[in-house]
Amino acid sequence: MSTPVIGVLALQGDVREHLIALAAADAVARAVRRPEELAEVDGLVIPGGESTTISKLAHLFGMMEPLRARVREGMPVYGTCAGMIMLADKILDPRSGQETIGGIDMIVRRNAFGRQNESFEAAVDVAGVEGDPVEGVFIRAPWVESVGAQAEVLATHEGHIVAVRQGNVLATSFHPELTGDHRVHGLFVDMVRANRTPGS
């Protein structure tokens, strides 16, 4: 089977780290900024950054509707931190004009774990990731207030939901791309491979 081509939405945020992590997890990784680039990938990562800025830039670059369409069509997508917010069907207390791509039936609280100076690391047990817990880097991280019936909770931290999957859409509050541990990206690459396999 050919190696999956996975894009990283390169409008704002820690794009380079995701490109490195995806390559380490045996994918061909590409930066994606335009609809024609989105059309060429098998899956997409939405990186951390500032969710309101990503939302505005997605509209500016003509990406919001193509992104929503690809998610509806079943393209695998993985969002970290701000990317998790972008994949939520609903944000608690969104900023004025802030929109999401959607894809996971969940309500997300922005900056729930505190401000930049309250960032921290914690070991997180993630369902579907074998071996030791994942070292989660939480930077102005959201958490998930609640999920719908179709969404599967993959991890919690101190009673708060920090990793969720619904079908082909995966989201984490934390940043695995900053740790050198590529197992969460490996899980996502496997999701993309399974989506490309005929009859799967």
Proportion in helices: 25-40%
Question: Residue ranges: pLDDT <50 for 5 or more in a row?
Answer: none
The total beta strand count reads 12
First-to-last CA distance: 14 Å
Order of helices and strands: EHEHEHHEHEEEEEEEEH
Radius of gyration: 15 Å
Which sequence of strands runs across the widest sheet?
A: 2-1-3-4-12-11-10
Shape: globular
For the report, how would you describe the main beta sheet?
Answer: 7 strands, mixed
Mean pLDDT reading: 94
Beta-strand content: 25-35%
Structural class: alpha/beta
Q: Tally the helices: what do you get?
A: 6
Word description of this protein:
The structure is a single chain. The chain is 26% helix and 30% strand. The chain has 6 helices and 12 strands. It has helices spanning 15-24, 35-38, 51-60, 64-72, 82-87, 183-196; strands at residues 5-9, 28-32, 43-46, 77-80, 88-92, 104-109, 120-124, 134-138, 143-147, 152-157, 160-166, 169-172. The strands form 3 sheets. A 7-stranded mixed β-sheet has the order 2-1-3-4-12-11-10. It has a 3-stranded mixed β-sheet with strand order 5-6-9. Strands 7-8 form a two-stranded antiparallel sheet. The longest helix has 14 residues, at 183-196. It is globular and about 40 Å long. The mean pLDDT is 94.
